[in-house]
Amino acid sequence: MTTTTTRPGLAAADDKWLANKLLQAGFGGPDCDFPECTAARAPRPKGKPGPPPKFCVQHNNRRDRQIAYRAQERLKKEQGAAPEPVPVEKAVARGAREEQVLASLLPRVLTALEAVHQGQQAGADTAAVAAHIEQVTSDAGEQVRQAEERREEAVQDAEQARGEASRSEEAADHARTERQAALLEGACALREAAAADQRAAADRAALDELSESHRRLRDDHHELTGAHHQLTVRNGELEQSHTTLTGEHGRLLAAHGRLQGEAEAQRSRLEELSSQHTRLAETQRRTAAALAAAQSENTGLAARLDEVQSHREEVTAENGRLTGMLEEERERHRQEVAALRAQLDVAPPAADPETAAGHGDGEAPGPGLTDGSERTESDEDTETDGEGPAVPLSIIDLGVHGGSGWTLVRYESDHSSWRVLRDGEIAGSIRPVHSLHGTSLLGWSARTGSALPVQPPLGQKYFANREQAAGAVVRDGLRRPPGTTTAAVAEAFTALGEPRQNALVAAVIPLATATPERGGRLAQLPRAVRDAALRTALRVPGEQELQQLTALDAAALGRSKEARLLLGALQDLAPADAQEETGPVNLGTIGGRAWRLEPDPAYTGGYRVLADGAEVGGIAPVRRRKTDTVRWTAEHRRCTLGHGPAWAGRDTAAQAVITAESAWVPLPRLDDESYLRIPAWLRSNLYGAAGRVDVRRGRLAQLQPGAYRQQLHAALAQARRTAACRLRGQHLAVLLDAAREDLGAAGSAAADRLYEVIQEIRAELVSGAETA
Asked: Which residues does the annotated region (Disordered) include (predicted)?
């Protein structure tokens, strides 16, 4: 047998099972791991889990554990795997302690082996297990006996070693080796017995598990057999059903083909009937419209006939009354003439004072010599206290129509009536019509310059408002040529163009209607200046009138709002004194486009900005006062750039237009289908915003040129039809390119909302076009 010199304490420490058995036997277990210490290890504290301490009570602290760890590491480095020398004293002490452990442990081992043997005999049926246990028991007894003999020999050797110091170490080593071997053999025997016990228990558990598995498999086999039988029956039924369904499917396919042919025939018939119904509906709609128009025309003609008859009766009655009055006047004059002749015959002739003064016999008396009772009403209208023509109470500009300027004028003598003037001449009149009690307004009536009534639209007795009545007079006047006595209009006024003419007329109206009671400082200006303003407000200014107006300055007009507007409008009549160039200006190629400035015929000194020959904006010089520096305004696609005249020179203003055009994203073509694919919520927002603006008054009613105003009004009318209306490109493009100032005044919430919705639609449309 080969033995090695190993400390029993270390062997027990390495063998957990042996250490556990030693602890169960009541011994302290292996020695302390502290160097040079032979004391037993400290017991495990009660209630504290984990492994037991490896040090004694004295050395079971952190500092001593660190010292022991460092000593072990140092010893391993120095000696490597060499066996540790054990002094004789330690060997003897440990041998004595191990002898006590073995002496107390052997009876327990034998008892445990006997119990294991009896349990194996009672629980196992195989002869192999019993023979193995018997063999293990006999081997363990033999090993224990041999260990006991070796122990006795070791004791004897130890006693001899005490007397002989020179041979003590060898004897101690031999005894230690023998004891260690005996301990190991006993431990091995115990391990084999425990292993046999565990194997027997495992065999029993495996046998039970196999039995249970066999029972479960048998039950599963029976269940699967029954399920297989059921599935076989079900498969036969399904095969029979499949055969039946296959035949039914063939019949259904044949019926489907037949029905599909019939459906195609019915569909073509339905389309034919639908187209026929559409044609009939269109015919019915046209017939109904024609019938309604005929009925409306018949109603209007009947009403017109009644009015003509009533007017004829009124004229006949008036003629009869006037004829009677004329006869009465003639009779009265005949009587007066007869009386005067009688007086003339009786009285002597007398000298005429006027003849004596040298006035001549054939002159008629002037207006100042007429009797007060013979002064006509027209004289009162045209004279006011000997100061010249009366000042109108109000003037409304109707714009330019048919090459003529139209205005509405109301004087104090007109009461509630308005005169419609064409280039300063009366072309008609309008007046409100009230009820019999005068409490409610029924509408407006209109008459031409020859006092003939102008008929309202079909189905209406009166015009709805003043603007509609004035428009009817204008349309009637356009059918006739203008008067031959029209005054010559100054070329400077004509050269302004329609937009700036409108601005100038609107600015001079407060000066033309100024009176001491209303007008403030404007009423203090000379009468000649106010007359010039009146002729300008009537759109018939002469060169002299324009010179009088342009001679005004801020000191004469004051600091009122009307004065500032008038100065700004008069500035158009006096552009920059000196211009660098008066002809076209070539700006070169910028951003891949050819840019050019062309003189603007509608604004003296201004330019139209052209990109590749297409107009994209305009610039114009502005001078607030005669002493101010000339500055420039810039406009890009009807949108004013900056605030007022924000540009110091022509080139900077043109560059602002070029920059705005570079950032501007063009819309798709007018026939693009993307206009019809705008989301419904945006169309609904446009419907609501368009319904809040009024095209009959404000800036929308005064947009110039007139063609653009009509296009914008038509687009808004289309947007106001219904929330689900899909606008096409020809209408929607006009709205999307409209500037903010075209939609209303600066503080208008309705115009702001409409412009915001338009920009949302434009962004959606442009982003969709870029994605496509």
From this structure: 35-58, 138-179, 343-395
